[in-house]
Write a structure and sequence with these properties.
There is one protein chain. It contains 15 helices and 13 strands. It is an alpha+beta fold and 399 residues long. It has a domain of 229 residues: Beta-lactamase. The strands form three sheets. The chain has an eight-stranded antiparallel beta sheet, sandwiched between helices. Strands 3-7-4 form a three-stranded antiparallel beta sheet. The protein starts with a helix and ends with a helix.
Length: 399
């Protein structure tokens, strides 16, 4: 056992993800899988990237920005990242805390004094760190529906005084968007500048993420943007696939970009291209320490609160043995390996991103349609990548 562990550590430090030949075969097979999945679900357009240490080893684009096929998706086509935006907000907040420009133990009421809950004193117990880890004690997705109904944020916050917490802070997990949006006033108060400007200064510009931005106005001003698509209907084709299931035809409808979740930019307001996400992955793998320090990356990825529901995720559940939330990132034990991961979903868009410091690889995919095919593709990537690594490890140990 000790010998195997020694060999395992040796492979981690001395051996890349896999040999060049194996990587080539892996990329070719995976590319074919992605094309098949996107075609099966008639996804209008998408893009993915695979990084290994500080290199992009695969980047592919598929389809068009809209159903009219007016523009091909390319490496710089901008997509909405939805909840993948939380990885950026958590990074900025934690960065400011490490710079001693704010304190993660500050109560949110310090920055949003009118925020209150039905239980006396409960609001004052919720600290910035609880918002970062979705451990505020609030019911999951509190008042997200009001964003769709075009309520202003001030009015929505005023409704929280009707909510009774379901647990004490740090005692249970409850995923939030509006509450995550409350990080914005804390971030801006510490710097005296807008969240968008701060993200540009501290992350986008230093990492050369030239297509990245925050907010709906910037998105509308850009020309090379993916347009959102919502499923209109499924049609049975009368054909059966290799697993005996009905083959369906998916009909998508191009819709307008909605402003709803843009109202909470720290939760879901970032726009970026697949090229930007490649740079974000490389930085989070530790190859831009002048921007994202090792101590910062460690702080972000400490498991803070257990997320048992994730263990039942379709396509992932057979491979997950543990799941937590850190600060802006999910921490999975997948097929015996830790994966730092997040997904995003807003009207007409899906996004997935993840990386493994242990395997020294990262993967991101974006599509301009609301399809769970993206979850299947991501889980397939991590299963195949981890299996390839394990086979290499076994070969090294035996030799």
């Amino acid at each position: 056992m000790l010998f195997r562990m020694f060999c395992y550590l040796l492979v981690l430090f001395l051996t890349p993800f896999s040999s060049a030949n194996n990587v080539t075969q892996f990329k070719k097979a995976f590319s074919a899988q992605v094309k098949k999945q996107l075609k099966q679900y008639s996804i209008p357009g998408g893009a993915y990237v695979i990084v290994q240490n500080k290199n992009i080893i695969a980047m592919e684009n598929f389809g068009h920005t809209d159903k009219a096929k007016s523009h091909h998706i390319d490496n710089n086509t901008v997509f909405r990242l939805a909840s993948v935006s939380k990885t950026f907000a958590a990074t900025i907040t934690t960065m400011l805390a490490q710079d001693q420009q704010l304190n993660l133990s500050d109560p949110i009421t310090k920055y949003v004094p009118h925020f209150s809950l039905a239980t006396d004193g409960a609001a004052q117990k919720i600290q910035l760190k609880h918002l970062l880890s979705h451990s505020s004690g609030l019911m999951p997705n509190a008042y997200d529906n009001l964003l769709h109904e075009n309520w202003a944020m001030e009015k929505i916050i005023g409704r929280f005084d009707r909510i009774t917490p379901i647990c004490q802070p740090a005692m249970c997990y409850g995923y939030q968007n509006i509450a995550y949006g409350l990080l914005q006033p804390a971030i801006e108060a510490s710097q005296g500048k807008s969240y968008a400007a701060l993200l540009q200064d501290r992350v986008f510009t230093p990492l050369n993420m030239t297509d990245a931005s925050v907010g709906i106005d910037v998105y509308k001003e850009q020309e090379n943007t993916a347009k959102p698509h919502i499923l209109r209907k499924r049609i049975k084709t009368g054909k059966i696939d290799s697993e005996g299931r009905d083959i369906k035809k998916y009909i998508w409808r191009t819709v307008k970009v909605e402003s709803d979740f843009y109202k909470v930019p720290t939760a879901a307001g970032v726009n970026a291209s697949i090229t930007d996400l490649a740079k974000w992955l490389i930085a989070n793998l530790g190859y831009k320490p002048e921007v994202l320090s090792p101590s910062l990356l460690t702080e972000l990825t400490i498991p803070r609160i257990r997320t048992k529901k994730d263990l039942r995720r379709r396509f992932w559940r057979d491979h997950l043995t543990d799941a937590h939330y850190g600060y802006g990132w999910r921490i999975y034990q997948f097929n015996g390996h830790p994966i730092i991961y997040h997904s995003g979903w807003v009207a007409g868009f899906r996004a997935d991103i993840g990386y493994s410091p242990e395997l020294d690889i990262g993967f991101a995919i974006v599509i301009n349609a609301e399809s769970n095919a993206i979850s299947k593709i991501s889980s397939q990537f991590w299963l195949q990548a981890s299996n390839l690594f394990d086979k290499q490890l076994d070969a090294k140990v035996k030799s």
